[in-house]
Amino acid sequence: MKFFQHNWTKVLIAYHRFAGSWAWILHRITGIALTGYIMLHIIALSSLQKHKIDNGKAFNEEMALFSSPFFLFLEWLLFAFVIFHSLNGIRIVLIDFANGARYQKKLHYAVLTIGIIAFLVMGYVIFSHQLNESTAFLFSPTNK
Amino acid sequence: MQVKFSIFRYDASKDEKPYRQEFSLEVEPTDRILDCLDRIKWDYDGSLTYRRSCSHGICGSDAININGKNMLACQVLIQDIKKKLIRIDPIPGMPVIKDLVVDMTDFFEKYEVVKPYLIAKNPPAKERLQSQAERALIDEAVNCILCGACTSSCPSMWGNPNYLGPAALLKAYRFAFDSRDEAPAEHLEAIDTNDGVWRCHTIFNCVEACPKEINLTWHISQLKKKMVEREF
Questions:
Q1: ipTM of this complex prediction, to 2 decimal places
Q2: Measuring CA to CA, which of A44, A49, A121, B139 is 20 to 30 A from A62?
């Protein structure tokens, strides 16, 4: 008999997404992104091996690059990925090994609320230093 | 009120590709989707094909996909949909035979894998007694009508057609946690595989789809716990 079978990616796009589906999609995306990040992180760190020869010049240059506002912003995004992935990981553990399947939606909204608060606090922690530094000359007695 | 239906049409004997057909109907807010399908079939196009038997949410024949969500056509009212355009598709992830009729052979083959029957070696003298607390464990699981809405809504199943699916796993729970069953290990053995209980990624699409409001993921989580207890 002849059949028609939908392509599964099309089904994934067409099917309605509930709270649980969003949690799963975001968990997958952040998981893949963090795996990619860890590779970049190791490559960036391994390139610093040169400090033995140049007395930390490469290290200092790289650190200067990483404290530029653009990289601070990327770091903030990285934090968002990490916080969602870890909080949702706790949610999944509660679902599988506690009674979490009965209140998974509440858990999902708790993950989002705690995540967004932590994200904003982290934003303040990362950028307050930057903001203070860029406006410091207004208040500092010894003007540069 | 006037509602437009956009219905998935496919006939293997003459269509190369599926297409959509639209019907505008004057309906009451309290009409069920199944009533509307019946009216389209009886008054407009007799070739429209769908399954339905009891039409009261017991037989589980008319699971279809309405506006991207799996549900029973006989249990959903027009006023529940809250949209003027109602898209009707066959349940996803299963091969379409004609229009809204899907091939469920695979679904029932997977169902048989978990040994969906009471395994009792010794016939009882009178009856198999069960306490209220023991029965309460399976209260929710026995409500399953095997409509397939859950298994067909599961992204794990779309991606991996070998996955047993929530309906089969629920049946495994129903017998493995039944105090009258004498060999729960046999049901558990069948689902302790890569494509069994561990393929559930707790996406909860099945719970949203179930017309009997069974929390399938909770039952699967109980199975997972049982598996881990067995190991240690």
A1: 0.88
A2: A121
